[in-house]
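Progress report, Aim 2. The chain analyzed during this reporting quarter is listed below.
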Amino acid sequence: MSRCDLSAKRLGVVYSAGQIGVGLGILPGLVYDRLGPAWTCLWALVMTCAGNAGLRAALPARDGEACAGLPVLAALYLVLQNGSVALYQAGLLANSTAAPE
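Predicted structure tokens for the chain:
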């Protein structure tokens, strides 16, 4: 990523944080079990929007602008990925329970 001068190793840290967000899919899974698919979709909406909006604010729009630090980028990508897996789970679980036997 040339705008933030992140090396491949540092980008790997951001990617790894995202994979932790996917691994923490147990949290929206618990929301689904206790509150149902609508609340899980709300979780997904909030997390995905927060992650995307945060990354938009953290990444520079033009060359030469300041970029957020590695921990900020990693945390925002974790949030984004957790929202993404929540939406996937909501659809998968709702459809699997509604499918005829």
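The chain has one domain: 27-98. The chain has a mean pLDDT of 91. These observations will guide the mutagenesis work planned for the next reporting period.
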